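[Protein data]
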Amino acid sequence: APLRDATNVQRVRDFHREYYRPENLNLVVVGSIDEKDLMRVVRGLEDELGETVQRPSKFVRPWSTPVPPMEKCSEERMLCPADDPSKGMVRVGWLGPAAVSVYKVTALNILLEYLTDTAVAPLEARFVQVDSPLASSVSSSLTENSTTAIQLKFSGVPVDSLAKVKPLLISTLNELTDGSLPLDMSRMKDI
């Protein structure tokens, strides 16, 4: 529904009252500053906001509650307008570690780049750099909220081959895990 039909002035005011508040504020300061002047201004702002903001009794910071574990796999097929209706896109995703697990998140970013970044990357080699490609490109993303979301995206997939992507992906990941498709550790070190 269009935004003008989905909301009204009162809903916008309620949203602002709930979320635009000191407890949900992040302040980023960049550049050369006098720390004492900054703290004086911030304290004054805190005092001013404390007097003017009406707060509900309980505030839960958005995106701070734990993400429940996935109970099962799910698949959805969505039809979207496209310039070329003979091609589609497949996205495969997982929940990853907590975003505060810096070493695990860094390792995942390195692994995702290793899997997708060049023509010799395992997923690029299996899906794109073959005689009958299943995709025109493979990319990855890792979103850091309280829990990370890991996603592999296969673009330019022939519509009649959409169902082939996930099984080949799982097979390739299994081969990398069991060693039948060896990891190129010298390439990994260059990432």
About this structure: The mean pLDDT is 87.
